[in-house]
């Protein structure tokens, strides 16, 4: 009994087999997800992958066609939105334009039977928290985009929700402000210790802010893990291509030995990869190599020719033709930048090459 | 003034002249009515023989005119209020909800604005005859509601599309139920459109003559039908005074309301 209680206290949000379809179109397909108390989880994926639909299902703005959603140990998918106690921050802030900042932040408290004097205190504390003290009397239209987003955050947090849902909250801000707000948002989240689900299509945002990244595509979860984990060890072809720049090298395992798998690529060249235990000679595989891990130099096992160069300051991005296979490399510039048309040699460390099986999943 | 102005002068002058003439054509009749309403003469025409308020005073003693004025005001106020309530409800249903036959409902609601009033007038009358209902003031109000409802639906719909749904979603996520959300968020944001439609409906009802002639109970006059029946007898200067009052009401109210709506919209943003 004691153990069960401890477990529910740890899990803040629980999705069990949540499905949502609009007629033929399945927006969310049998998704299960468990989020711990105080955790900052990002749902990352291209538009239409179902991340926003999951967020809206938890908020109660759409009704899942199947599955269960629990928040703070309470099943909520069958209760109306206004009884769910969730904090929601929208892309375009959605501050009530006809209400002052004070009335905006106090809005949720009014429906929680909080005393007037306490409301005033809480609003003040919330404004201090988002570092905008003294703006109670202003109208939202008198504030900048970044300030409005902070007010929206204060309005969502002041009701002490069980979970904070952020729907692309930074995408309406300009680039400089976005990075500043990224840090700010993360700091506030950590100070308050609130469980947060963040939806974005921006991988940099996801990697920079999250405790855990959930990569989604076509209504299903492709992979979840720490930012480093999903970036360095992609489980599927989709994750490998969606996060960062990767080279996909199709071929067949020629031999396995000494913990190394030798892969014959379709163009006849061979590369070596760290061999997972499932690797067997003769298997059709795809090697995945990050562009940053493709080393361009004078000596190496793969011969190629530079097709194009983009100078990026400290690094350069190269497209290389290696006997019919196109490779992308992002390398730090050592002695000099390689020119277009130059013959180069490429080396890839076996540890930097992951192998995917025929279905596009990482060989275990 | 300078050379370039003089060069394009002739065409430009012509445009100016035509513009002025159009304005004269549009506003001279109204101006004549207003000016003549202060004429001291027995006859409701030129020449002016002196300045006087006597026709206004006489109007105030005219029982028939006063009761027609009262009738018109009541009918217009009732129509405006009922129309706005119905129109807001209809607009919300049409903009915020999906239901089968939505397009058809929308078309039917707008249709009375397209059908000639005479046809509507006869139609409603025939319907009432068939249902063995007497012609009462309520029939008149009902008819005016039918005439004005399309405009309310159109005006409120246009505004409601501009009120983004996230405001309502935000309110509900903060703990307000549907009704509280409507009262606290949707309604205040719709206020400019509601004020505008109240005034629009008021003037539509207050000014209406064609349909009102069919629908008014016997012995009851509205302002426009009263003026018409007075005209049948003679062109009394009283009519000029009455006309001026109607102009003040039907032009002044929307101007006032427009200002109010603009003020609300500004403080609402």
In short:
Chain A is α+β, with helices and mostly antiparallel strands.
Please provide a written account of the structure.
- The complex is a heterodimer of chains A (364) and B (269).
- Chain A is of the alpha+beta class and 364 residues long.
- Chain A folds into 2 domains: 2-238, P-loop containing nucleotide triphosphate hydrolases (Rossmann fold), CATH 3.40.50.300; 245-356, OB fold (Dihydrolipoamide Acetyltransferase, E2P), CATH 2.40.50.
- Chain A is 25% helix and 36% strand.
- Chain A contains 9 helices and 20 strands.
- A 6-stranded mixed β-sheet of chain A has the order 6-7-8-3-9-10, sandwiched between helices. A 5-stranded antiparallel β-sheet of chain A has the order 13-12-11-14-20. Chain A has a 5-stranded antiparallel β-sheet with strand order 15-19-16-17-18, with no helix packed on it.
- Chain B is mainly α and 269 residues long.
- In chain B, helix 2 (9-36) crosses helix 12 and helix 4 (63-96) packs antiparallel against helix 9.
- The mean pLDDT of chain B is 84.
- At the A-B interface, strand 6 of A face helix 8 and helix 9 of B.
Shape of chain A: elongated
> Helix fraction of chain B?
over 70%
- SSE sequence of chain A, one letter per element: HEEEHEEEHHHEHEHEEHHEEEEEEEEEE
Characterize the main sheet of chain A. Answer: 6 strands, mixed
Q: Give the number of DSSP strands of chain A.
A: 20
> CATH fold name of the largest domain in chain A, please?
Rossmann fold
Low-pLDDT runs of 5+ residues of chain A are 1-9
- The beta-strand count of chain B equals 0
Overall mean pLDDT of chain B stands at 84
CATH fold label of the largest domain in chain B:
MetI-like fold
The oligomeric state is heterodimer
- The assigned structural class of chain B equals mainly alpha
CATH superfamily of the largest domain in chain B: MetI-like
Task: State the CATH class of the largest domain in chain A.
Answer: Alpha Beta
Question: Biggest interface and its residues per chain?
Answer: A-B, 28 and 21 residues
| Euclidean distance between termini CA atoms of chain A | 37 Å
